[in-house]
């Protein structure tokens, strides 16, 4: 949302960050309620993250305030936003690779079977609080990072969390983080209500439509599309020339799928995810078929 405001609507970077955070403060609780109802949130981890992220988000806003007004600050925010977007795109790829390795280990018996419940994770307070501090600073200064930097950190600190628990915990911890950053920008930042109010109004149906679409589209497709958009936005925020941006994006579209197929093969998985999905469905049907045969005999 922030790069769209800057690149297509000409909103100053600092005002775009402020408006994006306020809109996110409205959107985040919607998904959080769903995960809380489903029990896919580790509230102990959320509390530790909030201890670090909430004050750090305020500090991020204050750092921007101390830098003072002027074009230099706006350019600094734009640069920081571009780097944060680029980091987010890279972390999406890292997350996909970590999940792929986990699936490969589960398939050959070297790891825990993913469908089964995992034991309760042991809390690691200081690394968790430190992760919250880093995420809070980045979000407070750029509005980017609550769904990328922190979730990758959670995967490293708490490898025992299941995929839906990672998403639910990350989404719920983002609520106090984004609220703190939005409040800080409202008090000390460059909040533009003429931009923010339409964003908030549009985000309400947008969240609903996005949830409906995400339930029908494959997770792999959504992640690839998101990584592509983040990369394109990052390059433009970093003032990369149009020709170079186009060449990088075309090269990524051509090379990335081939490289990912090779990575899948090296981890013992089929080159295509669709083939893996069919194999999993067949494997899942075997126990049921065996049970039916046993009942007949």
Oligomer: single chain
The assigned structural class equals mainly alpha
Largest sheet: none
The dominant shape is: globular
- SSE run: HHHHHHHHHHH
| Proportion of helical residues | over 70%
Overall pLDDT: 84
Radius of gyration: 21 Å
What does this structure look like?
The protein is an all-alpha fold. The chain has one domain (2-234). It is 80% helix and 0% strand. The chain has helices spanning 2-9, 13-38, 43-66, 71-107, 125-142, 149-157, 163-188, 193-214, 219-237, 242-266, 273-296. Helix 1 (2-9) packs across helix 9 (219-237) and helix 4 runs parallel beside helix 6. The longest helix is centred in the first third of the chain and has 37 residues, at 71-107. The termini are far apart. The model is unreliable at 112-118 (pLDDT under 50).
Keywords for this structure?
single chain; 297 residues; mainly alpha; 11 helices; 80% helix
What's the arrangement of secondary structure elements?
Layout lengths: L1 H8 L3 H26 L4 H24 L4 H37 L17 H18 L6 H9 L5 H26 L4 H22 L4 H19 L4 H25 L6 H24 L1
Task: Please give a quick description of this structure.
By secondary structure, the chain is mainly α. It contains eleven helices and no strands.
């Amino acid at each position: 949302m922030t790069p769209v405001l800057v690149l297509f609507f000409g909103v100053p970077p600092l005002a775009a960050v402020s408006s994006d955070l306020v809109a996110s403060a409205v959107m985040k609780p919607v998904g959080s309620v769903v995960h809380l109802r489903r029990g896919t949130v580790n509230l102990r981890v959320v509390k530790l993250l909030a201890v670090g992220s909430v004050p750090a988000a305020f500090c991020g806003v204050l750092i921007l305030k101390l830098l003072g007004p002027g074009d230099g600050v706006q350019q600094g925010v734009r640069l920081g936003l571009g780097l944060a977007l680029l980091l987010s795109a890279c972390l999406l790829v890292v997350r996909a690779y970590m999940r792929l390795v986990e699936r490969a280990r589960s398939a050959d018996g070297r790891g825990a079977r993913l469908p089964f419940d995992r034991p309760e994770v042991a809390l690691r307070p200081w690394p968790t609080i430190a992760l919250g501090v880093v995420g809070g600073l980045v979000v407070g200064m750029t509005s980017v990072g609550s769904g990328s930097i922190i979730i990758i950190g959670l995967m490293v600190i708490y490898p025992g969390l299941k995929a839906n628990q990672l998403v639910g915990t990350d989404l719920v911890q983002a609520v106090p983080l984004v609220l703190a950053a939005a409040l800080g920008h409202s008090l000390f930042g460059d909040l533009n209500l003429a931009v923010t109010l339409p964003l908030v109004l549009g985000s309400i149906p947008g969240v609903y439509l996005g949830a409906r679409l995400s339930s029908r589209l494959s997770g792999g497709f959504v992640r690839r599309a998101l990584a592509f958009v983040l990369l394109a936005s990052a390059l433009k925020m970093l003032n990369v020339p149009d020709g170079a941006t186009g060449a990088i994006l075309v090269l990524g579209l051509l090379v990335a799928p081939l490289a990912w197929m090779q990575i899948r093969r090296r981890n013992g998985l089929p080159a295509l995810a669709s083939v893996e999905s069919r194999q999993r469905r067949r494997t899942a049907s075997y126990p049921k078929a065996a049970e039916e045969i046993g009942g007949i005999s």
